[in-house]
Amino acid sequence: MYIENGRLCDFLDGFIDIINESQAWEIWMNKRTGMTWEEFRLSVIPQDISAEEVENAQQSSENLYNNLCGMIGGER
Fold this sequence. Notes:
Oligomer: single chain
Strand content: under 5%
Order of helices and strands: HHH
């Protein structure tokens, strides 16, 4: 159904969010962090990021890749 409606990415994003929160809950339950669940959750689960932050990360990754290729003499 999700594939037919072109919403597979939405399904997968939601599924990954559920898994991440579940894992964070298990960690929080078994560790003494001194934080409330909400404080802990916000500190370990990435929040939505802006398009500018995505662009900056992409540019940084591309620069790193190009530098590594230059160091090892590889071609891009």
